[in-house]
Amino acid sequence: MSFVDNDEDLCPSIEEEELCLPRASINKIIKEIVPALRVATNCRELILSCCTEFIHLISSEANEICSKKNKKTINAEHILEGLNKLGFSDFTRDALNILNECKMQAAKRRRESNRLENLGISEEELFRQQQELIQQAREQINTEFQQQQYGLQTQIIEQKESSGDDDY
């Protein structure tokens, strides 16, 4: 994606749009940063283009670094090295902080997913408890159904009795 002075060239083609950041995300970020200002559409498009170009630049540099090290997967180290190499070393501290936050959230998710294992109850006991709950639910449904049936029968009997009185 290239930057041209013509506003019409800021709007990406369909192929380029597939490689762009979501407009909704950019709009949300703009609103968070400058909530009291209205930002023109062409400015939003320019910001979108700049963000996309920045990501392409960093990822291309990280890809080169990864290739030079004979690695097949770009990792955080390659991104950080790419930021430094391209002159964005001011961003590395923030990037490291975000990386650490992501790692902590991932670890928290893993711990929470292991809660079943940490209950101290065997699978057989959990299955037995589940079957018991299912049986209780069935009994409750049957009781409610019987009460409804009894109510309907009572209504029918009352209607027959009241309609029978009118015939005499």
From TrEMBL:
Residues 21-80 form the Transcription factor CBF/NF-Y/archaeal histone domain. Pfam families: CBFD_NFYB_HMF. Its main location: nucleus. Keywords: Nucleus. GO terms for biological process: negative regulation of transcription by RNA polymerase II; RNA polymerase II preinitiation complex assembly. It is found in: Nucleus. Coiled coil: none annotated. The keyword Nucleus applies. Signal peptide: none annotated. GO terms for molecular function: protein heterodimerization activity; RNA polymerase II general transcription initiation factor activity; TBP-class protein binding. GO terms for cellular component: negative cofactor 2 complex. It comes from the Eukaryota. InterPro entries: CBFA_NFYB_domain, Histone-fold, Ncb2. Belongs to the NC2 beta/DR1 family. This is Protein Dr1. It comes from Chironomus riparius.
